[in-house]
Amino acid sequence: MAEAAVDIVTDDAAGETTRRCLVTGAIKPKTEMLRFVVGPGSQLVPDLAGRLPGRGLWLTARRDIVEEAVAKRLFARAAKGPVVVEPGLEDRVEGLLVRRCMELLGLARRAGLAVAGFVKVKAVLAAGEAGVLVAATDGAEDGRGKLAALVPNAVLVACLDASELAAAFGREHAVHAALKPGKLADLFVVEARRLAGFRSGATVEMPLVGSQG
After folding, report:
1. CA–CA distance from 17 to each of 31, 58, 162, 191 (Å)?
2. Residue 10: pLDDT band by 50, 70, 90 thresholds?
3. Residue 44 maps to which CATH number?
4. What CATH number is attached to the domain comprising 200?
5. What predicted TM-score, i.e. pTM, was given to this entire model?
């Protein structure tokens, strides 16, 4: 099982590249997993972008999975050698995922593909120009529900709190945001789904295929 968890490349029926989780043995799309590599000094390094050199050690993107891998020393077993794992690895991964989500929102904002604020978001949704609706995890449920009702076919993401969402848009306050469909929106959803595996109360609700508004 340990060897099978290291950079196994396969393709599923949908044509997605998959990897095997070294904890559960489950084979999943790369977009649902986390890659780690062993760097200088045998230090374990999270490689969330999947670009660092070295053999990848893959885990399902969930806090409990990372904790189990550390507790059972599965990184060293899979790497067949010593691996130094820093304390609080799961918290570091969460922080990196938060930063990736915020950076993608910032890129979308600067490209004119994302807006924040209830009024602006409502206008974008009403015009049918939104593919992703973002709501702060600590925002009011009624506001989120009113906006979500306007776009039953959009992805509803709640993975960042209000302060993080505001920082991503360079605002003092933000509870709602919307992204237009496209590559940045797709990338944001991927990162949000991975982050949701580390945050209690975080959700990513995908629309039902063929759902009608």
Report:
1. 9, 13, 34, 17
2. low
3. 3.30.1230.10
4. 3.30.1330.30
5. 0.88
